[in-house]
Specification:
alpha+beta, Pdz3 Domain, 4-stranded mixed sheet, 4-stranded antiparallel sheet, 22 strands
């Protein structure tokens, strides 16, 4: 029961913060320009259900649970979506949005996406400043899965990757993330081995999580020394049945100290189906747990996943280092997003396996809070906030990009001495609403079809 409550709270937290920080951007810039704000619905569209009034602004919860909105006096293009138009009082003309210069309207519109982008930058910045940044190991292979694609390709422990998919001297992070978007696709890779370069091809293994297809490399870097912490357990596998718990720190296997997870994997593979003694630290107490491995796909496994969040090696950084990490993190997200949609447009990748709708997003949030806790949830919030900010800049009516486009069209009209009627604006906004609803329906259908698959 507690897991369900945590999952619900996680979904409310991520979506609530991402959407409301966007609307707060519109709200605060309108207030700075002394425009009168009629309503701020922090949950839902349409008619008011409940709320309270401070000054001229009604802070409310609305009937249709599809986001949030800020309603400005004098901006009636979307009045039908925002609970109608107030006729209760005469408003001074200098407080009306509609009578303000276009540059002020532009800043109000850009305020929402800008706040989303700033939040996406702030989250990794604060995490980096507080906990440091993940160590990016040299691209030296430390572990190759027995019988896996990497071994078939000819990769060996100790190989240094000097070229991956045409990129010279890639970082380990770049290698992992590029592979995510190329499941079951042969990738050219060049390694340096004993002073000479060897050209090979590696095929990332396809895995599907929440209906999304990813490519996983079945080799890992030499990480040096790191805490080996259990991040998740498969209930049907020996580790869970033997009493191992999430958060246990594994310090030795069959009496041999483990420096990192590669050494632990190697020792488990060597033990095969023989009894395995794990020495772990749990809440400061040292425990001995006995288990056995089972064979799956030529690999001996006990059914654990490692905590890759904050237990892995991290390096302390100052303000400039944290700023650089935040910038690079967001640029990498944008690069991978653009690459994924580029693959969809060329037919290399299925849209069904790439785009998540409301149900898919909820699944991802629940999985993240379950596997990585609150800090993992914060990172996901940053990703969703960044994508929400960029998506809202698209020139689709009803979105901020569409509103900005309308300002440009109005400017063209004014050059010919004409104005766009309110009726035309409302029709355009309704077209945008229909397009967005169609997108929601299609992505939701994809989410449901993935569940049945």
């Amino acid at each position: 029961m507690m897991e369900v409550v945590i999952a619900i709270l996680a979904v409310i937290f991520v979506l609530g913060v991402a959407i409301n920080i966007h609307e707060f951007g519109h709200f605060i810039i309108a207030k700075l320009f002394r425009m009168r704000v009629e309503a701020y619905s922090f949950f839902g569209l349409g008619p008011r259900i409940w709320g309270f009034k401070i000054g001229h602004t009604d802070y409310r919860i609305s009937a249709i649970p599809l986001g949030a909105y800020v309603k400005l006096y004098g901006d009636e293009a979307t009045a039908s979506l925002e609970g109608g138009v107030s006729k209760e009082e005469e408003v001074p003309k200098h407080e009306l949005y509609e009578l303000r210069p276009r540059w002020q309207k532009f800043l109000v519109m850009i305020g929402g996406p800008l706040m989303n982008i700033l939040l996406a930058l702030a989250i990794p910045f604060i995490i980096a400043l507080t906990y440091g940044v993940p160590s990016n190991p040299a691209p030296i292979i430390g572990f190759v899965k027995p019988g896996g694609e990497a071994e078939k390709a000819g990769l060996k422990p100790g190989d240094r990757i000097v070229k991956f998919d045409g990129i010279e001297n890639p970082t380990w992070r770049r290698i992992e993330r590029d592979a995510l978007l190329m499941p079951e696709k042969p990738i050219p890779i060049t390694v340096e081995r004993e002073g000479s370069r060897v050209d090979l091809f590696i095929t990332p293994v396809k895995v599907v999580e929440n209906g999304q297809a990813f490519g996983i490399l079945d080799f890992e870097p030499d990480l040096g020394a790191e805490p080996v912490v259990v991040g998740r357990l498969e209930p049907s596998m020996p580790a869970a049945q033997s009493g191992l718990q999430v958060g246990d720190w594994v310090v030795s296997v069959n009496g041999k100290p483990v420096r990192n997870r590669q050494e632990m994997k190697k020792l488990i593979n060597e033990a095969k189906d023989q009894p395995i003694r794990l020495s772990v630290v749990r809440n400061g107490e040292r425990l001995e747990i006995e288990t056995r491995a089972v064979q799956k796909d030529n690999d001996w496994l006990i059914g654990i996943g490692f905590n890759n969040n904050l237990s892995s090696a991290r390096e302390s950084v100052g303000i400039l280092g944290a700023l650089n990490f935040a910038w690079e993190t967001n640029m990498e997200i944008l690069r991978m997003t653009a690459k994924a949609f580029g693959q969809v447009s060329t037919g290399e990748r299925s849209a069904r396996d790439t785009v998540a709708g409301p149900i898919g997003i909820v699944q991802i949030i629940v999985q993240m809070v379950t596997s990585a806790g609150f800090l993992g949830l914060l990172s996901l919030l940053g990703i969703i906030s960044l994508n929400l900010g960029i998506f809202n800049l698209l020139p689709i009516p009803l979105l901020d990009g569409g509103q900005i486009m309308m300002l440009g069209i109005e400017k063209v009209y004014s050059m010919f001495g004409k104005t766009m009627s309110m009726a035309i604006k409302e029709r355009i906004q309704m077209v945008g609403l229909v397009l967005i609803l169609i997108l929601i329906i299609l992505t939701t259908f994809n989410d449901i079809s993935r569940l049945f698959r």
